[in-house]
Amino acid sequence: MSIEFENKYIVVKRDDIKKYLNSIAQKNLYRYLGAIEAARKAEGKKNNTYLVVNTDEPYAGEVAQIMQRHGHFTPGGMNCPYCNEIISLNIVQYYPELLYECECGTVVNDEGEDMTDKYYNPV
Ligand SMILES: [Zn+2]
User: Exposed site from 4, 24, 64, 99, fewest CB < 10 Å?
Assistant: First the structure.
């Protein structure tokens, strides 16, 4: 059984930030994250920490079911405009626009528009 969650969070491994971003980009990223944290604090929100489960793990489905049972579930996913299967929100591009790829190879944006041609044949 597969449960599709809303693609609600961006999770980045600290090691990847260190490895793939130069020091200026690292400082900027942490500055922006700090700004979000400060704004949340100003609104009286607490600074949350999270358990992260890689969806590739064989136990991810069990974790998803536990979360669903406890009401921590916002349905997500969208249907592929080509094969009509639920796209598992496999991100293939972050910038300038978030793009996801279906297992059939179709690439869509957040609105579910087919971006396959633009993705593979950029101008
Ligand atoms: Zn598809």
Answer: 24
